[in-house]
Amino acid sequence: MIDDLHSPDRRRALKCMAWGGSGVLWTLVGGVPASKLVGAAHGETTKGFSFVQISDTHIGFDKAANNDVTGTLNEALAKIGGLSERPAFLLHTGDITHLSKPKEFDDADQLIGASRLAVHRVPGEHDVLDERTGEAYRARYGNGTRGDGWYSFDAGGAHFIGLVNVLRLEGAGLGRLGVEQISWLAADLAARSASTPIVIFAHMPLWSIASEWGWGTQDSAQALQLLTRFGSVTILNGHIHQIAQKVEGNLVFHTARSTAFPQPEPGTAKAPGPKVVPAEQLRSFLGLTSVTIRGGAHRLAIADATLAR
Amino acid sequence: MSKPAFAIASAWAFVGVLIASISHAGNERTIDIGDFVFAPSEIRVETGARIVFVNHDDTPHNVVDRNGAFRSRALDTGESFSIVFDKPGEITYFCGLHPQMSGKVIVTPRSDRQG
């Protein structure tokens, strides 16, 4: 665990986090990543298919780190409503609720539903706290999914795959996909050509960011191995409430900010968890992620925005 | 019953209740959950002891037996979960939300048990 903090990969990841925090637009051209500050990209035409990722809305949370999570979610949705191009859909990468209570889900559905955008989602560990460990989530959102709620669909020339890595955790300290889900993933990918852009989304990071804090997935390597033949793979996660990015060959990893509250960066606190920041700074730690697939479907542009005005 | 005899009997009854109370308190141990850690992370108790888990974090945690024998509900801030272990053995558990958190309870036979 400690070694991971001091490894070159770890240092690079932390460097990317600080860099990403200022708002970076990623462009993939033929698998080669390029970047520019979001501000510098203003005015650039971004015609194409786009969607927005939101994450970790934690509806029901009412502690010091943010006692108005519905308000900040509404601010995020207002930003989405103000985008110059209406996104095709929202991707919610989990922790919709804080305690999996029916009213929390109802409130989240009402708030997010007001955007009138289609929503694709995967559960976070906070969404499967019902007595039957996720059954309530699947009853509400699981139509058309397999197993614990994983599924795939095609849109904008890309193939989207929602994975579930917050169930059947074994006390090994990390998220878990499981043999059944990885087998399904292999079969799902087998029918796709290598030139199809792949977008994977799951709650917990599919790369090891801070294993001592559980920020990783114990069997993700088996899933990632299945993706090596594809030219463009974008992996979107939440859970850590801050931006972290890594490019590894054809794989682009990206975690999104929360709309609810920040968490500390690894190595800066004893433990993860809600981080209290001065009220006037809170919105600079919260935000959303926009992704555009441009013509030819080989160019995925990822842009992060905070809720700060 | 004469007044002195009644007083003595009452005194013994009071002492009996007091001993029972102390015995019960001595059989209850608390495991505090804070900063994503179970503290103490390892605890040794006798059979019949009640273990109380109390969450002090601003995020929910739960308590899950690694062998599947029990799973608490999610504990929000200030909430607790208690369990009594009736058989000797080692119980390892973790938080089902944050599986990097783990602990162990070692249960030994009660020392006052006869036969």
Would you write up a description of this structure?
The complex is a heterodimer of chains A (309) and B (115). Chain A has 309 residues and is of the alpha/beta class. Chain A is built from seven helices and 13 strands. Helices cover 22% and strands 22% of the residues of chain A. Chain A has a seven-stranded mixed β-sheet, with no helix packed on it. Chain A has a six-stranded mixed β-sheet with strand order 6-7-8-9-11-10. Chain A is globular. The N terminus of chain A is likely disordered. With 115 residues, chain B is α/β, with parallel strands linked by helices. Chain B is 21% helix and 36% strand. Classes of the chains: A alpha/beta (309), B alpha/beta (115). At the A-B interface, loops of A face β7 of B.
Taking all residues together, what is the mean pLDDT of chain A? Answer: 86
The share of residues in helices of chain A is: 10-25%
Global morphology of chain B: globular
Report strand % of chain B. 35-45%
Q: In terms of structural class, how would the helical and strand content of chain B be classed?
A: alpha/beta
Ends distance of chain A: 38 Å
Order of helices and strands of chain B: HEEEEEEEE
Which regions of chain B are unreliable across 5 or more consecutive residues at pLDDT < 50? 8-24
Helical fraction of chain B equals 10-25%
| Strand order of the biggest β-sheet of chain B | 2-1-4-6
Q: Quaternary arrangement of the chains shown?
A: heterodimer
Q: Please state roughly what percent of the residues of chain A sit in beta strands, choosing from under 5%, 5-15%, 15-25%, 25-35%, 35-45% or over 45%.
A: 15-25%
Strand adjacency order, main sheet of chain A: 2-1-13-12-3-4-5
The beta-strand count of chain A equals 13
